Amino acid sequence: MKVRSILADVRKSLGIAVWAMVLLFPLMVMKVSVTRGVAQVQFRWNLLPFVGIAGFVLSFVWRIALEWKDRRGNNKSEGAFSRVKAWGGQYFARPAVRKSSLVALLCFVIAYPFLFGMYHTNVMITAFIYVILALGLNIVVGLGGLLNLGYAAFFGVGAYTYGLMWKYLGHSFIAAGIDPGWLFWISLPLAGIMASLFGILLSLPVLRLRGDYLAIITLAFGEIFHMVMQNSSDITGGATGISLIPRPWFFGHKLPPPQAATYIYFIAIVLVIITIFIVRRIEDSRVGRALEAMREDEVACEAMGINLVKNKLITFALGSFWAGIAGVIMAAQTTYINPDSFTLWESIIILMAVVIGGTGSIPGVIGGAILLKLLPEYFRALAQYRMLIYGIAMVLVIIFKPDGLIPRKRKQYTFEEKELSK
Amino acid sequence: MEYFLKLFLSGTAKGSIYALIALGYTMVYGIIQLINFAHGEIYMIGGFTALIFGGFFFSKGMPVGFVLLFSVLLSIIYAAAFGYTIEKIAYRPLRGKPRLSALISAIGVSMVLQNFVLLAQTEKFLSFPSYLPEFKWLQPYKEYINSTQLIILGVTAVIMVLLTFLIKFTRMGKAMRATAQDMHMAQLVGVDINQVISVTFILGSALAAIGGVLICSYMGQINYYIGFIAGIKAFVAAVLGGIGSIPGAVLGSFVLGWTESLGTGYISSDYEDAFAFIILIVILLIKPEGILGRTQRQKV
């Protein structure tokens, strides 16, 4: 690299550093506090150099990252890293390796609750709940290309289905001598169906509309759900929610908390596996292909004789179904639900799991969900910066790696090698 | 009737604030078809900057008129600078990519700004001292309308006129309209797209800052979260009037303001925020292109 271009870069970055210091000056340096109607400003000059230095360094990083992105766009399969990746891919494509590593993973997952204790088991359950949610959302966003910003509401529909079942049917179950834990097993499919119904209901007004309207209307639905749950205190318990929700039935035994956690952990695993299985099947089915076509080009898709309305309804119904299921597990795990678990930010975090992991890619989405749920558990010290970091991560991923960390593999026809290298 | 009139006037004031935010939305959407989620955050930052500078100038013992003028000016400048920077960092690299990518990026920006203000300033609600003047002659009518509401109405009207003038009769406005119609074609005839988009963001953000200062003076409080819901409502207003259309955004904002105000007055105040969303769903069912919007024919 030439000296002059480096000098130009430095000058540019200095400019950006100054801009950052000026731009962030009022919010970073001047801290306002209001006492009895009079605003007081306190200066924190010590923060200013940090802003400047950060601006300088980040602008360099940003420039290099943009260059890297351009280069990567031009020639894909070069450099040591991609060669290692390709080798790893081939290695894992071998059936024996693939099978044995899957078995090892399964063994680890099964042994997990016995190795690490209740706290970590519970953390893992929440991660699994997110995996189910992210896989469900992936049907809508990844396959169908429809942005859903109210997904937490469907999650809430599931949780509230179980919660309300318990609230209104629980005592009659107990009076009849039936274990209330049965309610879990009844609610599980019911919640999925309820969430699907809501999904269909919601998608009806927006079937004719473009993607961004859909995002807003799902967002609106999420907010309305939250508000209704919060304000209808005589039916749903309002802001205080529903408590003492029973844990799932286990051959009539009342399990102590650690065992109950293990039990729910296994239910969650089984559901995750079922979800993965079904979602994979959907991807390769007629509906899945139609959805993919719809995502790529709605007009061309319609011209091919695919019924868009029907397919959008199916997408929403299928996507919401898993949210409902996840909601029931969540209610059973925490034994307590209130509207604040189903806010817009919850929807956005689930969306983030899909986007960061890799829209449309099943392993990516699973990885993204586990990552987003486990990292905050183990970096408690950074808890207050969590949403800030998530926001930054979301912007960075969408700019630099729009396919996510584990991109979706598109099915493609491969030609014979010799034909290509002629 | 008196009750109705009162609600109607407060709805009008509310609507004119929504209009200030909705204009920014509709301008940005008109040009790059992006729902700029961060727009509400710009409005919040405008309010915060005004509070910070206002507090600083006031504590230095400056006269109220001076405090008002300079804090509002600085907040407009800062909000515009934020709008410009955000567009450059988060939206420009995504131009030409699928539309949903920019939307997701906008959600990310919105999260970043909210949490940045939360961490750098405070999570508490701060009371917002009003530096706006009180009109003596309005005393007898203060049952119906107070000075702040009147100022809001006046400011919105003036801005509307200026903006219409800018878009209809200036060179920049012409370039903006051309870009909104067809970006590539505008580029071919020599319009500097990047400049037009930057100007759009700067203008929209400046309007949002004015809205932020006005509504914070009206409500008397501010915190880091006020932008989000206001932004969504302003978006609803823009959709209601027909997104991309400037008179539509204003009309939609007034309709939304009246509905909210009458709805909370006659039905229930618990669901104040829900009215906007219900209107949104209804409008999308009946007339998705909005009141003043034109149906866009899809060409293949």
TrEMBL record, chain A:
Q: How is it placed in the membrane, per its record?
A: Multi-pass membrane protein
Keywords in alphabetical order, please.
Cell membrane, Membrane, Transmembrane, Transmembrane helix
Coiled-coil positions are none
For whether the record's keyword set contains Cell membrane, the answer is yes
Keyword Transmembrane on entry: yes
Name its cellular compartments.
Answer: Cell membrane
Predominant location = membrane
Q: Which GO terms describe its cellular component?
A: plasma membrane
Which residue ranges traverse the bilayer? Answer: 47-66, 102-119, 125-144, 151-170, 182-204, 211-229, 260-279, 313-336, 348-371, 383-400
Q: Which GO terms describe its molecular function?
A: branched-chain amino acid transmembrane transporter activity
Per its record, how is this protein called by name? Leucine/isoleucine/valine transporter subunit membrane component of ABC superfamily
Gene symbol?
livM
From TrEMBL, chain B:
The listed locations are: Cell membrane
Q: Name one GO cellular component term.
A: plasma membrane
Q: What is its main location?
A: membrane
Which Gene Ontology terms describe the biological processes this protein takes part in?
D-alanine transmembrane transport; L-alanine transport; L-isoleucine import across plasma membrane
* Top-level taxon: Bacteria
InterPro entries associated with the record: ABC_transp_permease, BCAA_transport_permease
Q: How does it sit in the membrane?
A: Multi-pass membrane protein
User: What residues form the membrane-spanning segments?
Assistant: 15-35, 42-58, 64-86, 98-120, 144-167, 188-210, 274-292
Give a Pfam family name: BPD_transp_2
One GO MF term attached to the UniProt entry: L-phenylalanine transmembrane transporter activity
Q: Which UniProt keywords apply?
A: Amino-acid transport, Cell inner membrane, Cell membrane, Membrane, Transmembrane, Transmembrane helix, Transport
Q: Which family does it belong to?
A: Belongs to the binding-protein-dependent transport system permease family. LivHM subfamily.
PANTHER family cross-referenced by the UniProt entry: BRANCHED-CHAIN AMINO ACID TRANSPORT SYSTEM PERMEASE PROTEIN LIVH, HIGH-AFFINITY BRANCHED-CHAIN AMINO ACID TRANSPORT SYSTEM PERMEASE PROTEIN LIVH
**What is the name of this protein?**
Leucine/isoleucine/valine transporter subunit membrane component of ABC superfamily
| Source organism of the structure | uncultured spirochete
Tell me the name of the encoding gene: livH
